[in-house]
Design brief:
Distance between the termini: 81 Å
Number of domains: 1
Low-confidence stretches: 1-39
Largest sheet: 7 strands, parallel
Helix content: 25-40%
Strand content: 5-15%
Shape: globular
Order of helices and strands: HHHHHEHEHEHEHEEHE
CATH class: Alpha Beta
Structural class: alpha/beta
CATH superfamily: YjeF N-terminal domain
Strand order of the largest sheet: 3-2-1-4-5-6-7
Amino acid sequence: MGSSRSAAGAPDSPPTDREALKAGALRLAVMTASPDTTNTRTPLPADDPELFGLDLRGLRRRWADRAALPPMSAEAMTGADRRAQALGVPEERLMEHAGTAVAAAVRGLAVDLDRWGRGPIVIFAGPGNNGGDGFVAARRLALAGADVVVVLVASESRPKGATSARNWDRIARDAGIRILHTPVARDVAMLGQGIDKAAVVVDALLGTGVRGALREPVRSTVELIGRASADGIPVVAVDTPTAVDLSSGEPSDPAVRADLTVTFHRPKTGLLTRRGAAHAGKVLVAPIGIPPGADRG
């Protein structure tokens, strides 16, 4: 009986010219194809292990897709935030991403200006969600090795909203963060005597809900931030400089003038106007995890 082999063990026959051409084309396609980006999506700030190693230029590149999106008004942003929560994104997670983005930007600015480690990061926080973002930023900056001072600028001794209050409680238990409370203008004036020692000042006082003239103690704090800025201390604003309308860009008097503003999700119409841009300084647009289904307008 003649010998036989299975198909798997049969010796290869020389390829035809057509087969050789097809194999060569396949190799060329593999070599020149664009890399698969399905698994290379930029992580959200709180999940990004590389974030605190980036300078401002690196942060701008990392979030470039956000800055390229169409601008939105304050009202549209409020709606997107609410719809995101209705779709199952917890407010606490949105705040964690926002505050982490602010912390990374503060560090990046301080490093760029050779001010990192040369004084405390002073965060002026209001009692609402803007202040809540500031509390998260404080915690993240302290973890990064910064000396952090948080000033709660409110008549209340604890923030109003549940999510902001939880983040307040977390920093209140952190021995590495100094906490001050300025319920009245007189307390703000006393604090102002040492503001010149700050490396960076963070404005986390008020976000999108400002209407009309500022009341105390916020008004005195905005004036104090202005004096710090005049003395050369860089100012970072959270979402918008306090008393600058995110939709129109119109400022109240007084209003914060920032060197850098970290706004969230998409650019804001008010920060693109002449007056809004003059108060915002440079602008970073950071992702915070609002899904496409929540984004309208």
